[in-house]
Amino acid sequence: MTENVLEKETPTEEKSMESWTTSEKENSKKKYGVEIMIDNGTWEQVNTKECPNDASIIIYVVDGQTRYDLTRGQKAVSIFNMYYDKFRDGMKSINYGKGTYNPKTWGIEPPKTKKRK
Question: Which domain holds residue 64?
């Protein structure tokens, strides 16, 4: 006598790994003048050279986990204010990014060249 026992799947609550909601990301541009480029990335993602040279690497701790963000802002003070308002004692450091692109040309597609006959 074997019975097939169906295992009930219990819904597990997964904690969101995102530190910033989409509304907070949009409001950060208006309120602080700061753009969050990479949210909760790995060290290799935020330490890339494929970003503008005015980007900053932010290191902070949430729930015992070290997290890394890549942000841009006109002033380091505004970046500090935004992260301090959100994380208080969890914020550890603000470092310069390793980007090599000119911020004026960041995000602009190069013009298409015409074919010569």
Answer: 31-99
